[in-house]
Structures are given as structure tokens and as C-alpha cells.
Design brief:
The structure holds 2 protein chains of 2 kinds.
Chain A (H helix, E strand, L loop, with lengths): L1 E8 L1 H9 L4 E4 L5 H14 L3 E7 L8 H9 L4 E5 L6 H11 L3 H6 L1
Parallel strand pairs in A: 1-2, 1-3, 3-4
Chain B lengths: L8 H64 L1 H9 L6 E9 L2 E9 L17 H105 L1
Antiparallel strand pairs in B: 1-2
Classes of the chains: A alpha/beta, B mainly alpha.
InterPro entries (chain A): ATPase_V1-cplx_f_g_su (IPR008218), ATPase_V1-cplx_fsu_bac/arc (IPR022944), ATPase_V1_fsu_sf (IPR036906)
Membrane topology (chain A): Peripheral membrane protein
Function (chain A): Component of the A-type ATP synthase that produces ATP from ADP in the presence of a proton gradient across the membrane.
Chain lengths: 109, 231
């Protein structure tokens, strides 16, 4: 099954990806992020034709707790965050829980 | 708890069978967990490389698009972005790592040549082309990262469940079974001791009875003898 890549973020963030041909995107202006980002993300997660969701790492802070957790643990589609502090924090938490050691921390030092 | 089981030999045998099975299952699961963690370490190394490449690609792409914006204006960049006709598509196939199904993502139409992009070559500048190219590069890295990170997430889930199973067997099921086994063994031994004691009692009683009977018989004999003596 062929799927597409989706981008969620401020217009500045999405423009570049659209230049590379990404068709599915949700523009959420910085001012409205607190209210509208949750809906945009949920919509993308529910869309079966989306295989990868690209977001800016800082935008994750605007999400409500539940949506953030579901987007971080989602496998289909999978979330890839850009910018910010490297690898997504949800993954890091999961590693800590599953293995018992904060592997990412060790490797970053 | 252990006291719920009936102390019968049949139950003891059943529990011994379960202990056997659980111990075997425990060691197998332990091996699986260790194997998964080893595989995970490999993927983690990969993921970290992919991450740093991704971050580099992102800063590069950002610089390029900012340049394009500064030189050509925001409207021109957005106009070009809206004109794209070819869309990157991804197809996922699955791969199996120690029973964990991880995706292999293949992409098509990410990299495009100038004439495939769809915006007019005349109306746009080389900087927009560069920005588009940088973002195409970034998308490829994103797809790689998505593949590796999905694999990591799935592996982590599997590691967690396996670990939970190992711990449940080791700290809950096996101790309970051992308790039950010990309980039944003790009970059976006690029953056996009771049985022996009972037998001894019965034997003693029987002996006493026999002795009494013998005494009575002796008495009777003596009487009989006296009777005959009287004759």
C-alpha cells in the first residue's frame, strides 16, 4: 500500500516540505497552536493514507497530554520530529522504561 | 495462594509438570529478551547516526529556504511550493527481527529533476531550486529516520512485554508453584506419618486384644481342666 508523508506545523515550517512535493500538510499558525494543533494531529493520525508525520520538536509542547502520548507511541503513522534536542523524548522515555537504562543520555555525553 | 490446592498426589504431579514447563519457558523467554536487547543496541547505533544526519539535513534545508525567501520573497517561494505536481510516496514492506515485525519503508518520487517539479523554470530562481533540492534530501533522511524509529518503537514494545513475562514467571508464577508443591509434599508426608501411627495403634490394639483373648482361653482351659479334674 502506498502512503504519503504529512507535515504539521507553522506555515514557515511546512512551505519547505511542500517545495519537495509533500501534498498533505496542516498549517497551524504559531498563535493558534495551543487550540488547533491537537485537532490537526489527531486528524493526521486517523488518516490511513499517511505513513509518516513530520513535526517540529517544539510543537510537541503545544499538544495536550493525551494527544502527545498517542502521537509519540504511534507506529502507523510514525512521527518524526525535526530540530530541538535530537531524538524524540517519548522514545527516550520508552527506552528507559523497557531497558532500565537511559541509553540516549549515555551516548550523548 | 498455595493453600487452595488439594493435597493429592495427582495435583502434585500436575504442579510438577507445570513447574517443568514454566522453567523451560522462563529460560527461553530470558534468551529472547537478551537477544532482543542485543538487536536493539544495533538499531540504536543506527538510529543515532540517522538522527545526526537528519539534523544536519534540516539545518541545511532551513538555510536554503531562508535564502530563497530573503532573495525571492516569501510569495515566490510559496507559489512555487503550491505548484508541485509530483508527490513523494512511500510503500512499506515488513521485515522480521526475532519475531518483531518491523517496516522497511521504500520511497518513490522523492528526488525530482528540475522539469519534474512542476513550477515554471523561468519564473523562479536557482535559490528556490536549491531549497527544493535540500528539502528533498531532508525528506529522504526523514524516511530513513521513520523506518529506524518505528523499528525501535516496536522492538521496545516487544522487549517490555518479554521482560514482563520473564518477571511474572520468575517472581510470581514459579514461587507460587514451588509453594504449592512444598505444601502438598508436606501434607502427603504428614498423612503418611499419620497412617503409620494409626497402623501402629491398630497393631498395638490388636495385639492387646489377642493377648486378652489368649488369657481368656487360658482361663477357660484352666476351668475346663478343673472340671475334668473333678470327674
Amino acid at each position: 500500500m502506498s502512503q504519503e508523508i504529512a507535515v504539521i506545523g507553522s506555515p514557515d515550517f511546512t512551505t519547505g516540505f511542500r517545495l519537495a512535493g509533500v501534498r498533505r500538510f496542516a498549517n497551524v499558525p504559531d498563535a493558534d497552536k495551543a487550540e488547533e494543533l491537537d485537532d490537526a494531529v489527531e486528524q493526521m493520525l486517523a488518516d490511513e493514507e499517511v505513513g509518516i508525520v513530520v513535526m517540529h520538536d517544539e510543537d510537541l509542547d503545544h499538544l495536550s497530554r493525551n494527544v502527545r502520548r498517542s502521537v509519540e507511541t504511534s507506529v502507523e503513522p510514525v512521527l518524526v520530529t525535526l530540530g530541538g534536542s535530537g531524538s524524540s523524548s517519548g522514545l527516550r522515555e520508552q527506552i528507559k522504561r523497557a531497558i532500565g537504562i537511559d541509553l540516549m543520555d549515555e551516548d550523548q555525553q | 495462594m498455595a493453600k487452595d490446592v488439594k493435597p493429592t498426589r495427582k495435583n502434585l504431579m500436575a504442579i510438577e509438570d507445570r513447574i517443568d514447563l514454566s522453567t523451560r519457558g522462563h529460560s527461553t523467554l530470558e534468551k529472547k529478551r537478551d537477544g532482543l536487547i542485543m538487536e536493539f543496541m544495533d538499531i540504536l547505533d543506527q538510529a543515532q547516526d540517522v538522527r545526526s544526519d537528519l539534523d544536519d539535513a534540516y539545518t541545511d534545508a532551513q538555510r536554503n529556504i531562508n535564502m530563497a525567501r530573503a532573495m525571492d520573497g516569501d510569495v515566490a517561494v510559496r507559489g512555487a511550493a503550491a505548484a508541485l505536481k509530483e508527490h513523494p510516496e512511500i510503500t512499506t514492506r515488513s521485515k522480521n527481527i526475532m519475531g518483531v515485525v518491523v517496516p522497511e519503508i521504500e520511497s518513490s518520487k522523492v528526488k525530482k529533476s528540475l522539469d519534474q517539479r512542476g513550477y515554471g523554470v523561468v519564473g523562479t530562481s536557482a535559490r528556490i531550486d536549491e531549497a527544493a533540492e535540500a528539502y528533498e534530501e531532508l525528506l529522504e533522511q526523514v524516511i530513513l529516520a521513520a523506518e529506524v524509529e518505528t523499528a525501535m518503537k516496536k522492538m521496545l514494545e516487544e522487549i517490555e512485554t518479554t521482560k514482563r513475562r520473564v518477571n511474572a514467571l520468575e517472581f510470581k508464577l514459579l514461587p507460587e508453584l514451588h509453594d504449592a508443591q512444598e505444601f502438598i509434599e508436606q501434607k502427603l508426608e504428614e498423612q503418611e506419618r499419620e497412617e503409620i501411627f494409626r497402623m501402629k495403634k491398630i497393631k498395638a490394639k490388636k495385639e492387646a486384644e489377642e493377648a486378652e483373648e489368649a488369657l481368656v482361653e487360658d482361663d477357660e482351659e484352666v476351668k475346663y481342666e478343673t472340671v475334668t479334674a473333678d470327674d
